[in-house]
Protein 1
Amino acid sequence: MAAIPAPLKARAAVRAFALGLPGTVEEFPWEDDAVIKVNKKIFVFLGAEGNTETPGISVKLKDEEAHGHALAVPGAAPTGYGLGRSGWVSVPLTGDGGAPVELLCDWVEESYRTIAPKRLVAELDAA
């Protein structure tokens, strides 16, 4: 049995973390590309599950420090389609030299807090 590549393990961990946040759902608006939503709004783009060529996630980071830190990851860039102007950052899942899963999950939580209704953020804080 072939080993699962590190980027796919990282994607699976980020996906599980995001789906564990209050009120979240996974949807596939573009064929195989997954997004996680809260209150019908996307807070993380996960891309296609089996993508080993350019795996990555995109998150909305309003906090300037987190935004700058995410952009400092090798290969990271403002998200395309004009989303970068609104604070969205695309971060590659390289498995080596990239952001550790714990940090990716911190950024996913930051993005969630930006998008989620206050009652769900309060539920997260109470947990």
Note: The domain at 6-116 is CATH 3.90.1150.30 (Aspartate Aminotransferase, domain 1).
Protein 2
Amino acid sequence: MLMSVSLTEDAVRARTKTVTRRVGWWKNKAGRRLLREGDRLTLCRKVMGRRQGEPLVRIVDVEVMAIRREPLMAITPLEVAREGFPDMTVPEFVEFFCSTHKGCTPATPVTRIEWRYLDGGEA
């Protein structure tokens, strides 16, 4: 499965990003869980919305280690750093996330996905 990391590509390339939060990514249209522990993802620069002829840039493969739902505002300072934003505070991250995800509020349930890099390049 492909996942875009366009906002955090540098942190993925540096292998410092080990967690992501998504508004979706919990269940598919049939109501089944979309991801499970052990699933593999290919992290890409951009997946959806590429222009005609724009290549799919694959960065790295990862294995899902944990997945759960929680309110966005439950994020901790350690988790903000694991998201690839070590210099942001929790309120700054929540504001940033809400500004880049239409309709999201601090109370919105998000899917927290934790992974490990499969190329042995963890920081």
Note: The two ends are 23 Å apart (CA to CA).
Protein 3
Amino acid sequence: MNIRVCMAKLHNVTVTEANPNYKGSITIGRNLLEASGIKPYQMVIINNGRNGDTWQTYVIPGKTGEICLNGQPPAHHFKPGDVVIILAEAFVTAEEHAAFIAKAVFVDGKNNVTSVESHLLGQEL
């Protein structure tokens, strides 16, 4: 059996750009990818704190601090300055779940990492 888990969360990151002329995806700064363990082309869910919109897409790496929603649909729902939560998912086996470590990354107003929390999923109950 596979279990769908949140493997990483980027908490309250600020959108720096919305590019309607790109063919899709979200650009996330390499500093945030390294801190969270999120991989290029991994699927993520983006939740907008301003309007409640949710979007799912894949990740491409960008410059430090960058959060850019790419493509016409997300560029209409996410604007520079919006504060969002990005959730990265993974599928783990029941055996892997007990030892799986999820990360929550916290940032300042310029998307610089201020702290990282690690959570051992098998001990969360």
Note: The chain has one domain: 2-123.
